[in-house]
Amino acid sequence: MELLSSHRSFGGWQQRYGFKSTSLNSETTLSVYLPPQADRGSVPLLYWLSGLTCTDENFVTKAGAQRAAAELGLAIAAPDTSPRGAAVADDAGWDLGQGAGFYVDATQDPWRSHYQMATYVRDELPALLAAHFPAIDCDRAGISGHSMGGHGALTLALNNPDRYRSASAFAPIAAPSQCPWGEKALTAYLGSDRSAWLTYDACECLKTSAWDRPILVDQGEADEFLAGQLLPQQLEQAAQAAGKALTLRYQPDYNHSYFFIASFIDDHLRFHAEQLGS
Ligand SMILES: N[C@@H](CCC(=O)N[C@@H](CS)C(=O)NCC(=O)O)C(=O)O
């Protein structure tokens, strides 16, 4: 891993690394926040998955998470949202291809040779972090994200309750098999057989998942994508039917932006820290 940048932040370090990912078969970047407590012992980890058009840097520069992460002793790993590079398939739209990996393992050409984001986040990242950051305890890991990344966080947690101990999301794409963003991406990455999509739809995952911990979701009421793309009411119904402990908070006047995320990120970090024992 090549250290691309390192900044002192609230007594810890905000760092960015570049490396070749084996699952993505491409160069990628990863941002890591190491809280001050990492100097003295082991710290739990929060994975942050960003949304459409983002890199690993949007969260780092806009969410304002470092202050609370430093207080709570929580490391944060923020990966990029897709494989990148001239040799990697792309699409003219901003909602497919580079910057829009949707945290799935693609099975269709031309995507499948690089777009293995589920494997990358679930398997490669913890191994990499454990090897390079001895202070990070990858067995005490939670996951969160925004929009496409909220969808990624919920589906990864629900599909892997042994891997993550806490889960939350901001304005997640809650039912991707029923909204235009999801239908476009899942058709491209997984093919037109909708049964292959279900494992990547949080509402479907809730029906069968062994996840037994509380889930926190914040949703802005003035979110421009609320009715057309995000469908949080479906998540609420699915959680209720499955008997899962979902707290869905509607936040009046907040839109889809990082101003919304920055306003509630401390609540989410505290929520994760409590469950991760930090
Ligand atoms: N580019 C799209 C918007 C995409 C968008 O809102 N992306 C969200 C995630 S879904 C985001 O986090 N954007 C980056 C940012 O705000 O820093 C548009 O022009 O409508």
UniProtKB/TrEMBL annotation:
GO BP: any one term: formaldehyde catabolic process
InterPro entries named among the record's database cross-references: AB_hydrolase_fold, Esterase-like, S-formylglutathione_hydrol
Coiled coil: none
Keyword rRNA-binding carried by entry: no
GO cellular component, one term: cytosol
EC number: 3.1.2.12
Keywords of this entry: Hydrolase, Serine esterase
Reaction catalysed by this enzyme: S-formylglutathione + H2O = formate + glutathione + H(+)
Any one GO molecular function term: S-formylglutathione hydrolase activity
Residues the record marks as active site: 147 (charge relay system), 223 (charge relay system), 256 (charge relay system)
PANTHER family: S-FORMYLGLUTATHIONE HYDROLASE, S-FORMYLGLUTATHIONE HYDROLASE YEIG
Function: Serine hydrolase involved in the detoxification of formaldehyde.
Family according to the record: Belongs to the esterase D family.
Stated name of the protein: S-formylglutathione hydrolase
Organism placement in taxonomy: Bacteria, Bacillati, Cyanobacteriota, Cyanophyceae, Synechococcales
